[in-house]
Amino acid sequence: MDKNDLKSIWRDAHYNKSDSHFSKESLEKTMALKHSRVISKSLLDIKIKVLLYTLIFLIYVGLMIYAFVYLRLNLSVNSLVPLVLAGIFLLISATTEFVRLLVLTKTADNLSLKDSSLVFCKKLKRIKTTDFIIYLVIFYLSAILIIFNYLADIGGVKNLSWYNEIVPVPLLGILILMLLSVPWFIKYLNNRRYKKLFSDLNESVHQLSDQ
Amino acid sequence: MEKEFIELINSHQGILHKICNVYFLRDPYKEDYYQEMLIRLWKSYPGFKNQSAFSTWLYRVALNTAIDIIRKQSILPKHTGLSITEYNIAEHKSNIESENKDKLYLAINLLSDIEKAIIILYLEEFNYREIAEITGISENYTGVKINRIKTQLIKILNHG
Question: Residue B74 gets which letter from DSSP?
Answer without folding.
Answer: G
